[in-house]
Amino acid sequence: MPSPALVGRASELRILTDAMTRPPAVVLLEGEAGIGKTRLVRTALARLPAGRTVLLGYCHQIREPFPYGPVFEALRDIAGRLPGRLNPVTGVLRGHLPELADALPPALPPLDDTRAERHRLFRAIRALLAAVGPAVLVIEDLHWADDGTRDLLRFLTDQPPEGLAVVATHRRENDARSPLSRAYLHHPDTTSVVVPLAPLGPDDVGSLACALLERSDLPQAFVTRLHERTAGIPFVVEETVRSVSDAEQPDALDRAGVPLLLREAMAERMAGLSPPAAAAVRAAAVLRLPASEQLIIAVGGHSAGLGEALRAGVLHEQPGGRYGFRHALAQQAVYDAMPGPDRRSGHERAMTALRAVGSPPLVQLAFHARHAEDTEAWLHHGTAAAQQAAALGDTALAVEVIEGMLGDPGLPAHHRGPLALMLSRFAATGLSHQRVVRLLRHVLRDDFLPRATRGEVRLNLGVVLSNQAGDTAAGRVEILVALKELSDRPTLAARGWAVLAMPAWGTESLETHRQWMARAETLVATADDPEVAAAVLANRASFELSVGSPDALTIAARLPVSDPRTAVRRQVARAYNNLHDSATSLGLYAEAERFAREGRRLAVETGAQYPAYLLDVSTVRRDWLTGRWDGLRDRASALGELATETPLIAVDVWLVLGMLALARGEWDEAVKHFRTAGLDAPDDRYVPITVAAAGGLIDLHLARGEFDRATAEADASVARLRRKGVWVWGAYLVPSAVTAFAWSGRVKTAADLVAEYSAGIAGCVAPAAAAALDLSRGSLAAAERRHADAAGFYQRAREAYAALPHPYAAARAGEGAARSRLALGDGGAASAFTELADAFTRLGATHDAARCRRVLRDIGVDVPLPRGRRGNAGVLSEREKEVARLVALGRTNREIADVLFLSTRTVESHVATVLRKLGVRSRTQVAPPG
Which is nearest to 145 in space by CA: 156, 130, 136, 134? Predict the structure, then answer.
C-alpha cells in the first residue's frame, strides 16, 4: 500500500514552507500524537530550494542527562558543509562534537563561571548554525526535551542567525504551557508562527483513505464510520486502512479492531510476521526507545527477524543505526498486546543488557526495573539516576525521576519519605523550581510523612519558595509551619530561623530579624551538625554585612571555606554570594570582587547552581556601579534570557537595565525594568534592589518634571525603608528622595530625612551610604539656596564616589557642584560642565550628557558633538545616532526633544537627515544604530 500524499494540510504546508524559505524564522508545529506533524515537516523539507542545509534532531521520551543532546545530534553531520574559517568561539564545541573536531577552531580554555561557560556554548552553537546557513534546524518531539535544550532553543529563537529557520514539533495535549516555558519575544525581523494541527474532517479522512487504497471514491458509510473510529487522526487512519482487506464490506472497520489505540491494527500486522520477526518487534516494544541491533537481539530479538520487521514496515530505521517504531502509538499497541509474564521477562533481559553497557543508562534501567517488578533494583537505579542528574546540574531530570517514583502506587510506603526528602534537598541547590513546588506541596498534602521528615521537607519547600521562586510571603508561611513540625529537631529548626532572619526579605523590622538570628544561633549551638552550623554561620555573616556592621568581615572570616565536606562548602558558596551582594551595595567593591571569585570557585566545586547564578546577576550590578558599561546591556540581557523560570531572582539584571535606560532617556523601558526589579510588589521583593529601583524611578519622574509622582514614590519608598530600619540600603534612594522633597517645596521633610539618614548610618561600614549622605546634604543646601555649602557637599560626595569607584554617581555629584558654582558666578563652572558632558558620554549616559550641554548652550558656550568620518556623507554623527536610537524606540519628535534638550524643529531636521542617510522612507524602518 503506497504512502499517500499529504491530505488536508494545504494551508499549514504553505505557512510552514514560506517560513522555512524566509529566515530568520521560528515555527512551532503543535498537535497530538499521530496528527501528522512529522509528515508535514518532511513534505515541506522536500519542497525547499536546493542549497539549504537540513539539520534533524530528536527528543526522546526516556532521556539520560545529556543537555542539548537533540541539537548536538542535528549538528554532527555538517562537517562537509562548513566554511574554511569559523568564529573562534565555535572551538568550545570540540568536546561536544568530536565528529567536527577537524573542522572546528582550536579549543578554548574553560571558564571558571559555569553560567558564562553555558552562554559561550550557546553563542558557539548559534555561530555554527550561522556558518552553514541558509539552514533549517528541525527538533522533533520538543515536549520530551530536557531543560537545557529548551533554554538553548529559547536563546536561538530569541536571537536566530540571519539564515536559520528553526522548526520544532511538539504535543500540546495535557500541558497547556508553551514548549519553551514562556511566550518568547522574537525579533521584529524574525518570521514567527505557531501552526496548530487539528484532526482531519470527514472529507479529508475520505481523501486520505482513497489515496491509501488507490481508489477514486469510497462508500460514504465507510468514510463516516472511519472518521468516527479514528477521530480524524491521520496516523490512526493510515494504520486502520492498512489493515482493512475490503472497504466494501459493511463490517470492514469493525474487524480491524480498535483503531484509536492501534491494538487490533498492529495485531493484524504482527500476525503476518514470522516468529523471529515478531520477537524482534516485541523486544523493540519493551525497550520503548529506538535501540541498536545488538540491544534488540539481547532482549529477545533475532537479526534475521529484525530485517523482516523492517522490510514489512512494522519497525523503521532511525538515525544512528537504531531501530524502533514509526510512532509511539504503535509501540504501545504491541507492548499492551504482550502477556504480562512476557513483558516482565523482557524487561529483565533489558536490565541485564543495559547493565553491561560501559556507562549504564540509569534512567532506562530504573524504567525496566519497575516494569520487571524488581522493587529493589528500581529504587537503586532510580535514586542513582536522580543523584547523577543532580550532580550534572540537570535538576529538572532528577525531579522528574523522583516524581515518577513518588507517583507510582507500587512504591512501598516506607520508601516514600526518603525520596520526598531527597527531592526537597535537590531543589534547595538547583534553579528549577516550578515542578518541585507543585510536587512537594502534593507530598505534604498526602500527609504520609513522619512529623520530623515532613518538617524538613516543608522547610526545604519554604527555602525554594523564598529563594528560587522569589515568593517570600508563601515561603515564610511554609517555614513557620515547618518550625512547629521541627520542635524535636532543634538543628533543622535553627536553619529555618536563620532563613527568616535575613533582613533583605519581608516587611519585619531589623530588630525582629535580629531576634530570629539569635534564636537560630542558640539552637544550633546545642547540636553537632556541621552543615547546619555552616548554614547558620553563613546567614549570620550575611546578616551583619548587609546592615553594614563593623564586625561583619571578621565573622565572614570564620566561614569553613576549606572544610572537606561538600555540603558544608556549599553553604560557604551561598554565603559568599550573599556577601558579594551586600559588599556591592555598601560600596566595598574590592571585598565584593574577592567574595565573587571565591564564591564561584566553591559553587563550581560543590555543584551549587543557585549561588552561581546569583553571583552572575549581582556582578552585573557591580559592573554598572563601577562604570564598566561597555557591552553591559548585552551581558545583562543575556542573563535575563536564561532566567526563564526564575525571573524574580534576576532582579539585579532588571535594575541595571532600568538604570542604563534612565541614563539614555529611555523612559518607558526604564519604568518597565524598575517594576520588574521589585516595584511591581515591593513588600514581597528583595528590599535592597527594590529600594534602589525606587531611587531610579524618582529620578525618572524628576527628569520629566513630574514632581507629584516623584514625591509620591519618595514617600512610599522612604516609609518602607524606615519600617525595615536598615538605612545603609538608602544609598541609592535617599539622595533622590531628598531632591524630590526639597524641589517640591517640602524642605522640612527633606531636612528631617537627611538627619534621620545620618543617624541611621552612623557607625556603619558603608562607603556608598556616606557618599550618599553628602550628596543629600548638597541637594538640600541647593534647594535652600545655600550655594556655597551645596558646592562643598557635592564636591565631597564627588570625591567619595570617585574613590569607590562609582563614576556615574561621581559625575552626578560633580554636576551638582558645577550648578552651585554657576549660581555663585564662578567662571570655572563652564569648564566643569564640559568635562562632565565628556564623562557622561564616555559612560554612555547620553541623556545626562545632553543635559550638561544644554547648560553650556544656555551660558553661551558651544560644545559640538563628535561628527562622523569626514568625506563619508552616509555616516551618522553622534547626535544623529542618538536621534536614530530614540526614533527606533518609537519616540515622537517632542519626546526626543525632551530627552536630548533640543528644540522640536532641531529634532525634525535631525530625523530628516537620519532617514536620508539610512536610505529609508519611514521612521518605522529605522533600526537602532550599532
Answer: 156
| Phi then psi dihedrals of residue 191, to 5 deg | -70, 120
The Cα–Cα gap between 893 and 256 comes to: 71
- Note whether residue 112 is domain-resident: yes
List Cα–Cα distances, 513 to 540, 543, 551, 725, in angstroms.
Answer: 11, 9, 17, 11
- CATH number for the domain harbouring residue 122: 3.40.50.300
Same domain, 802 and 910: no
Residues 191 and 46 in one domain: yes
> Model confidence over 622-666: pLDDT tens digits?
999 999 999 898 888 877 766 555 556 688 999 999 999 999 998
Cα–Cα distance measured from residue 556 to residue 628, given in angstroms and rounded to the nearest whole number: 27
**Is the Cβ–Cβ distance between 44 and 17 less than 8 Å?**
yes
**Predicted pLDDT of residue 756:** 97
CA triple 398-399-402, angle to 5 deg: 90
Distant-in-sequence contacts of 785-789, Cβ < 8 A, 24+ apart: 785/823, 787/820, 787/821, 787/823, 787/824, 788/820, 788/824
Cα separation, 890 vs 923, whole angstroms: 8
Tens-place pLDDT, residues 365-402 = 999 999 999 999 999 999 999 888 877 767 667 878 88
Of 196, 211, 236, which one is at a domain's C-terminal end? 196
pLDDT grade for 589, boundaries at 50, 70 and 90: very high
Burial of 242: CB neighbours in 10 Å, binned 0-12, 13-18, 19+: middle
The C-alpha atoms of residue 847 and residue 130 are separated, in whole angstroms, by 36
Element (H, E) at 435: helix 434-446
Sign for the CA dihedral angle at 295, 298, 300, 303 comes to positive
The answer to whether residue 430 scores a pLDDT higher than 80 is no
d(CA 182, CA 306): 42
More confident residue, 430 or 119: 119
- Residue 714, classed as helix, strand or coil, is helix
- Beta-strand ranges (E) seen in 311-426 are 315-318, 322-325
As a whole number of angstroms, the distance between CA 645 and CA 427 comes to 13
pLDDT score recorded for residue 619: 92
Asked if 547 and 583 count as a contact pair (C-beta separation under 8 A), the reply is no
Which residues span the domain enclosing 157?
10-196
Supply the DSSP string of 550-584, one letter for each residue.
TTHHHHHTTS-TT-S-HHHHHHHHHHHHHHHHHHH
Q: What gap in Å lies between CA 287 and CA 281, rounded to an integer?
A: 10
Instruction: Count the domains in the chain.
Output: 5
What are the pLDDT digits (tens) for 402-429? 888 887 888 888 888 888 888 887 776 6
Q: pLDDT band for 11, please (50, 70, 90 cuts).
A: confident
Question: What's the rounded mean pLDDT across residues 202-207?
Answer: 86
Q: Are 34 and 169 in contact (CB under 8 A)?
A: no
H/E stretch holding 756 reads helix 747-761
CA dist 392 → 66, 97, 387, 608, 890 (Å): 9, 19, 9, 11, 45
Q: Is the pLDDT of residue 261 over 60?
A: no
Cell numbers that stand for 917 in this block: 542617510
Between CA 639 and CA 683 the distance in angstroms is 25
Query: Does residue 723 register a pLDDT over 70?
Result: yes
**Residue 178, C-alpha cell as written in the block:** 508553551
Residue 673: inside a domain, yes or no? no
Q: If you compute the radius of gyration of the chain from its CA atoms, what whole number of angstroms results?
A: 33
Residue 592 is assigned to a structural domain of this protein:
no
Percent of the chain predicted with pLDDT > 70: 90
Q: In this structure, what are the phi and psi dihedrals at residue 96, rounded to the nearest 5 degrees?
A: -95, -25
Q: Could you tell me if 855 and 816 lie in one domain?
A: yes
Q: What is the pLDDT of residues 55-72, one digit of tens each?
A: 999 888 776 777 788 898
* Largest separation between any pair of C-alpha atoms in the chain: 106
Which amino acid type is present at position 838?
Answer: D
pLDDT for the residue 643: 59
Element (H, E) at 135: strand 135-140
For 121, the grid coordinates are 556554548
